[in-house]
Design a protein that fits this description.
Layout: H1 2-9, E1 17-20, H2 28-31, H3 41-47, H4 50-56, E2 58-60, H5 71-74, H6 81-88, E3 96-99, E4 111-114, E5 130-133, H7 134-137, H8 142-154, H9 159-173
Antiparallel strand pairs: 1-5, 2-5, 3-4
Helix pairs in contact: 1-8
Length: about 180
């Protein structure tokens, strides 16, 4: 939620490149998920290629695919179709359409149905440490970030569970493919 709060609070004055990291700096047990010498986030930031972030818009700072992006981890139990719908309904993500057809489905005409359903697989290198360009952040309106943060506040999922959902969705929120 801290990442979303930063974006919301600074939406009109974001720096050109944003890096979102865990609060612990280094050490294997605290920062095993930082892919640098001594697992040190300072080294990770010093090595960050700002032109690459600017040209790609979003870069996960975890280069090791395990855990998270390996094929065995892409069918995760965290980003279910229900969670996908709950997180993205009402945002600029084009997931809802109006069904005005008179098909034989059980839903009444003009009901909302998923037109951009949850992907079959969602893959992300673990741990929600990434860099993103201001331009990429601004591709979504402020209201999207407010609504996604509100989902975190309102969900009945535990902090750990909602955090895991976000871990698998940051790249999607910032316009990258699900895998």
């Amino acid at each position: 939620m801290a990442y979303l709060s930063y974006i919301i609070d600074h939406y009109t004055s974001l720096p050109a490149t944003l890096a979102f990291l865990h609060s612990h700096r280094s050490g294997f047990f605290a920062a095993w998920h930082t892919d640098t010498a001594l697992h040190d986030n300072v080294h990770a930031l010093r090595a960050l290629q700002i032109p690459f972030v600017q040209s790609n818009g979003y870069v996960n700072l975890r280069c090791n695919w395990n855990p998270g992006c390996m094929e065995a981890h892409r069918n995760n139990a965290h980003v279910t179709p229900e969670v996908w719908r709950d997180v993205f309904t009402g945002t600029s993500t084009s997931i809802l359409s109006t069904n005005s057809s008179t098909s034989s489905s059980s839903s009444p005409p003009n009901s909302q149905e998923l037109s951009y359903p949850a992907p079959a697989q969602v893959g992300a290198a673990c741990c929600a440490q990434f860099a993103v360009s201001r331009e990429r952040v601004l591709q979504r309106p402020l209201s999207d970030y407010e609504q996604i943060r509100q989902w975190i506040i309102d969900t009945e999922k535990s902090d750990a569970q909602s955090g895991r959902v976000m871990e698998f969705l940051w790249h999607v929120i910032f316009g990258m493919d699900a895998v």
